[in-house]
């Protein structure tokens, strides 16, 4: 059976353009893991960026591994063969480092699956010197690594371009000296700002189950970790390095035009994690745009707040002038003007995504969205006027201070948008569809709402069903929504401390049966998910200096809760 899988990997590689297969030698070998399927992982620009960074480092070899497809997973789970890398089909245990790029909390269970299928010891404190160093990075661990702390030897916090080259250089030096695992990790923790080795930090809990203290085991170690970030992103480009038809964006070349956001929406973790806002200028992006046009014609502009880019019109015009087209994700409704919509129409965009987030002005003020009904109606009018007849709307349910009036406001707003769209399209091509995408609000670390609990998932499920039932009668409106029970798990993995690893391990051993895991482990998940927190308590992620004061976030939280 192994040869069939190896042929499958060869076939995948044959379809790729841009991957590297370095010759193994004395250099440290890194296997970069994405804890989801190949199609999802290769659609992630962050994952591709780290792959290129490691491979371009002179003292490293980098290959990739993904969660096996469902039809292949059983083979590895039965332990007939160990999980192996894509490029050279070497077992993961042959690598010096297994590095996980982790953007989403819901992928945490897949990390344990990959470790298990690779025959790597799950718990870091039981791992031997002959096993790979297990490290992690990405958005989720940079916000709060604690639920994963028992499984990882170390984390690199923040932006990879800033911290990864420094780490690789130190690791190569230590590897040449033949250091033990503990010696190596201690040196990394001492010398690399942004590195976090959980085993060197003790967590003490009070009788009320709150964190009482977080302290290093050695006085010479830092008391808090520094999140690393790049000051000037105009010194390099961040773009797709591998093209393959087997991705979500197979017809598009992805390139990052900005990081961070100036808006300060109180629910948005990315906006706070990637502060301050930074924008690449056209001079920097021009070469990347040309590579994208030559490769795929369509260039996908990525960033936390793409439509806030001060040169957004010029960026789009450059691509169009050079016979390409552009694509963007959700757009700020207050940034849509006639010139912007015209450029999107010229690019062949058939659907524009807008994110009102809430159905009433009161609730949009609470979350500090910064848009009005007038902004939304003006945006719809512009979209229809330029021949774009599909609109996607994003809303959240379960936001802090939400009332029945706010839920009804979603219905009223969607109906108004639909009627406005039909009115504006009169005499033109017929308006097609509004797709309403609803997701439950999940409190995130390092945001003003980190102190707020998740709303009960049963109440949210009821609200979503009512919304879906009410809007089902509206022609040209399609409603899609997430599954609330998984939101509970995501909130637990977002807000939890180190004790959550016991639940995660139990869920893994019970083949993803979370209900059984909750019963087996003497840790109350509701304590993390449904509990109001006080400003005075130590939060699990307080061990990281995110560059934002806790006082500022709490002031924003109090302002939000008082603004209703």
Question: What features would you describe in this structure?
Answer:
This protein has 564 residues and is an alpha/beta fold. It folds into three domains: 2-226; 251-329, Transcription Regulator spoIIAA (2-Layer Sandwich); 345-495 and 534-564, Transcription Regulator spoIIAA (2-Layer Sandwich), CATH 3.30.750.200. It is built from 21 helices and 19 strands. It has helices spanning 2-15, 38-41, 45-56, 70-77, 108-117, 139-143, 160-177, 181-191, 269-273, 282-296, 312-321, 338-346, 361-366, 373-385, 404-424, 457-471, 484-495, 500-509, 514-520, 526-529, 550-562, and strands spanning 29-34, 61-66, 97-101, 133-137, 154-156, 195-196, 201-205, 211-216, 225-226, 253-256, 258-259, 278-279, 298-302, 325-327, 351-357, 390-397, 433-440, 477-481, 544-545. The strands form six sheets. Strands 2-1-3-4-5-6 form a six-stranded mixed sheet. The chain has a four-stranded parallel sheet with strand order 15-16-17-18. Helix 5 packs across helix 18. The longest helix has 21 residues, at 404-424. The model has no long low-confidence stretch (mean pLDDT 94).
How would you sum up the global shape?
A: globular
Tell me the number of helical segments per DSSP (H or I, 4 or more residues long).
Answer: 21
* Beta-strand content estimate: 15-25%
**Count of the separate structural domains:** 3
Major sheet details:
6 strands, mixed
**Proportion in helices:** 25-40%
Q: Measure the end-to-end span.
A: 61 Å
Radius of gyration: 24 Å
Mean pLDDT: 94
